[in-house]
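QA checklist item 7 of 12: single-chain prediction sanity check.
[x] sequence parsed
[x] length recorded as 121
[x] structure emitted
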Amino acid sequence: MPVSTGSYTPGDMYLGNYPLAVRDITVVSGAGVLVRGTVIGQITTGGKYKTALSASADGSETPRLILAEDLDATSGDVAAKAYCSGDFDAAKLTFGTGITAAAFEAACDAADRPIFIKTLA
């Protein structure tokens, strides 16, 4: 999938200390209304994405990426952008039920994904 670079916006969830990269993804129909900054997981069958929830059993229970835009996938698949690299402010991300900043960062570490989650004072 193509990857492009983004830019730093002060006050944003992106902290600017590690290169930001964005990739094209598809959010699965039925995922509902999602906001920029939602932590998403990939469904094993089909490779589409939805909000990562620890209770899921379709592959999406493992958090992988951060949604880069608001969208509505209530009644159809939606092409979207997701962050696949960068360092982010945990307080500005949206985590699904059972997913924490620590769990997300651990999943990224285990997969050698360069997404870093910071808790700012």
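[x] summary fact logged: The longest strand covers residues 78-89.
[ ] second reviewer sign-off
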